[in-house]
Amino acid sequence: MGLKYLMKINVPYNTTLFREVAEYVAEASGRPVPVSKPIVGTNIFAHESGIHGDGVLKNPLTYEVFSPEEVGLQRQIVLGKHSGSAAVKAKFSEYLIELTEDEARDMLARVRQASIDLKRSLFDKELILLYEEYQKERR
Predict the structure, then answer these.
(1) How far apart are CA 39 and CA 72, in angstroms?
(2) pTM for this structure?
(3) Among candidates 65, 47, 29, which has minimal Cα distance to 21?
């Protein structure tokens, strides 16, 4: 990727297989691919922070030199104590739930509190449960 983006060299190989090749080598060597491994780590394209998450949603080139799909990965919006309302709206739109600004603000408070209580970011199922609880309380 350095050759392709820093040196502007047209590389003759399929970069979308990088993650798959890294997993193959990791399995063969008995050593897992670290989640923060440059280029192929699963967390390289995970974004949580409010400003960071909002920036990458508006323009991925703000924080990513190349798209995650170019190396066989996907961008992830992670919700936790550092998230912002734009990330909350984007994450829930993945579940086909369109939040209003007020709902996003309310859910953000719940997400942050749950993340602090659990001392980690939230899983998709936990986010859906928080949303269902929120909807029940609003009735």
Answers:
(1) 10
(2) 0.79
(3) 29
